Amino acid sequence: MSETNRRKFLAAAGAGAAAGVVGITAGPAFAGGPARSSTAAKETVVAYVEDHQGSTVTLLVGEREVVVHDRDLVTRILNAAGGE
């Protein structure tokens, strides 16, 4: 994701609200799950699902971008955010 695209994404209407809803809703859903590893992120993480039918999640972690291909993760994020 280029800096221009990242700025557009962060400036898009509802981006902050969507991230907040996922964080609030997903918290209880993942409670009692596996413990965080010692290498887990220690800074703000934003998950971006561009295609709701795909299996790719782009994670914006501080200044880094991590692309994960995990259909189950996409489904859990969409469900937590109220998607279908």
How would you sum up this structure, described in words?
Helices cover 42% and strands 19% of the residues. By secondary structure, the chain is of the alpha+beta class. The chain has one domain (3-80). It has a three-stranded antiparallel β-sheet with strand order 1-2-3, with helices on one face. The longest helix has 16 residues, at 15-30. The mean pLDDT is 77.
Mean pLDDT figure: 77
Give the DSSP E fraction (strand runs of 2 or more residues).
15-25%
Number of strands: 3
Structural class: alpha+beta
Please indicate the count of domains.
1
Q: What letter string, H or E per element, gives the SSE order?
A: HHEEEH
Q: Provide the helix percentage.
A: 40-55%
Largest sheet, strands/sense/barrel: 3 strands, antiparallel
Rounded to the nearest angstrom, the radius of gyration is 13 Å
Uncertain residue segments = none
Number of helices: 3
User: How are the strands of the biggest sheet laid out side by side?
Assistant: 1-2-3
- What does the overall shape look like? globular
- End-to-end separation in angstroms reads 26 Å
Features:
84 residues
What does this entry show, briefly?
With 84 residues, the protein is α+β, with helices and mostly antiparallel strands. The protein has helices at 3-11, 15-30, 71-80; strands spanning 45-48, 56-61, 64-69.
